[in-house]
Each structure stands twice: as C-alpha cells, then as structure tokens.
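Example 9 (inverse folding). The structure is encoded as follows.
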C-alpha cells in the first residue's frame, strides 16, 4: 500500500536551529532515503520551492486567473516536499514517518495514495 509522507517547513523554526542542527536535518534526509531504499519501500521523493516561488491558478467565470504566492497565504508552515513509500500498511508508514528528521521540529503528514497514474 502506498503512502505519501508530507514534509512541512516552518521558516521561523528553521531559522532558530543551529547550523549543526540544520545540517543534521539535511543529512538525516539522506539517511532516511537510504533506509527506505534498503528496505525496498522507497518509491519517490520531491523537494519543492517555498511559497514565494509559487503561483496559484483558479478558474473564475470560465477564465483562468493566476496570482503569485501560496494557495494558503499567511500560513506559517508550508509543504516543502514529500516521500512516497510502498509499505505493508499504515502502521509501517507511521514508523517510517517518525524516522524523518523533520518530525523533531514540525510534523510529517501521512496520507494513503488513493489513485495514481504515470507518464507511461
């Protein structure tokens, strides 16, 4: 069963961390990827730019309207990346989420994949 493990960034919390702690989070990502690959549960990961680099598109009266910025303006935290894992069930997905270093400072949101399609 596939799950998405969503990582969230809080710039205030990140800025409060020492350089050593920030480096530990970054190194911990590499260690998590290795762990998930070694167990055969790793599917994919993506890191995303922050809200200042995003554009939100809405359709109003049949016409597209795009605005710079986040869909949820003013939110202190934003989704900064995710992992996709293929595991035996939710309990294992939660175990893996607890291994992601970001969980010490923010939260990892765990959601089951309900549908997927690829480019092939």
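The amino acid assigned to each position is listed next.
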């Amino acid at each position: 069963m596939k799950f998405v493990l969503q990582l969230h960034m809080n710039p205030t919390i990140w800025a409060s961390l020492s350089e050593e702690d920030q480096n530990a989070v970054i190194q911990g990502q590499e260690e998590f990827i290795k762990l998930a690959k070694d167990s055969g549960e790793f599917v994919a990961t993506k890191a995303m730019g922050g809200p200042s680099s995003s554009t939100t598109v809405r359709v109003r009266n049949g016409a597209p309207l795009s605005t710079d910025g986040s869909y949820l303006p003013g939110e202190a935290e934003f989704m900064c990346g995710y992992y996709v894992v293929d595991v035996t069930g939710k309990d294992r997905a939660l175990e893996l989420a607890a291994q992601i270093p970001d969980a010490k400072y923010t939260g990892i949101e765990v959601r089951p994949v309900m549908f997927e399609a690829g480019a092939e």
